[in-house]
Amino acid sequence: MHRFMVAPANIQNDRIILEGDDLKHLRQVLRIEPGDTVFVFDGSGIEYEAIILSMDKFRAIAQIKATFQNEAEPQTHVTLFQGVLKGEKMDLIIQKGVELGVHRIVPVITNRTVVKLNKKDSEKKAERWSKIAREAAKQCRRAYVPEVTEPISFDESLLKAKEFGATLFLYENEGKKCLKETLKCYTINKIEDISLFVGPEGGFTLQEVENCKDLGYDIVGLGKRILRAETAAISVLSIIMYEMGEISI
Ligand code: SAM
């Protein structure tokens, strides 16, 4: 099942235009020819089954045979607010987060974020991270590509979190509130839009935790072991998706 992501502008009436890297891959690697079937999505959640009508070295034209809502999308929308991590750790979180069904990823510059990004770096990083999200969506057969925004400040992220039905804030020194109990009340109250905060390598400061407490966010612990940020983000995303019934056939 060959899947391609195209820009919405390349879908015109019942025709789809494939060009650029996709065309090269289609012709030279997959050896697809006129008459073959391909699946195309534009990142919004709709998927198209199409037949290749013609191709040359500039473009391939396909005719839409069927249009359908992609069924891989979770009903629960989780936005991950992730303290920006060094090196390729963000790449891992983005790729695994997309596979697990994350809805959006917002990199956050917290007090202890080591990575310093100027405007240009932020734009470049966001572009690279968005490419990783696109590739992961293509691979795991999602037709919606989760947005990876440019990094924002911690204060901005707290304000944005107010828009959600619930906010889960992972803090390793939280000794009372646990994830299991907290998620149980989310399922009972059918909360479908959740924000999840995970700190950077150095964790959140006490002040950052207090600011979250003042806003009534759910500060939860994951037990006595200190997880790397990428482990915490990926495992808690998995747990949320499982508890909300999104890891199912
Ligand atoms: N302050 C930590 C330490 O003492 O090494 C470092 C932070 S940890 C590497 C990165 C992030 O993962 C934390 O900010 C938190 O969001 C999450 N995390 C890791 N272990 C956790 C735990 N046991 N309970 C809750 N959150 C945890």
Structure description:
- With 249 residues, the chain is α/β, with parallel strands linked by helices.
- The protein has 2 domains: 3-69, Beta Barrel (Ribosomal Protein L25, Chain P), CATH 2.40.240; 77-243, SPOUT methyltransferase, trefoil knot domain (Alpha/beta knot, 3-Layer(aba) Sandwich).
- It has helices at residues 20-29, 89-100, 119-139, 154-161, 179-188, 206-214, 229-243, and strands at 3-5, 11-12, 15-18, 37-41, 46-55, 60-69, 77-83, 104-109, 147-148, 152-153, 166-170, 193-198, 218-220.
- A hairpin with a 4-residue loop joins strand 4 and strand 5 (46-55).
- The longest helix has 21 residues, at 119-139.
- The mean pLDDT is 95.
- The chain binds S-adenosylmethionine.
- S-adenosylmethionine binds next to helix 7.
Summary?
The protein has two domains: 3-69, Ribosomal Protein L25, Chain P; 77-243, Alpha/beta knot (3-Layer(aba) Sandwich). 34% of the residues lie in helices and 26% in strands. The chain contains seven helices and 13 strands.
Topology:
Elements: E1 3-5, E2 11-12, E3 15-18, H1 20-29, E4 37-41, E5 46-55, E6 60-69, E7 77-83, H2 89-100, E8 104-109, H3 119-139, E9 147-148, E10 152-153, H4 154-161, E11 166-170, H5 179-188, E12 193-198, H6 206-214, E13 218-220, H7 229-243
Parallel strand pairs: 1-4, 7-8, 7-12, 8-9, 8-10, 11-12, 11-13
Antiparallel strand pairs: 2-3, 3-6, 4-5, 5-6
Helix pairs in contact: 2-3, 2-7
Bound molecules: S-adenosylmethionine (SAM).
S-adenosylmethionine is lined by residues 170-172, 198-199, 201, 203-204, 221-223, 225-229, 232.
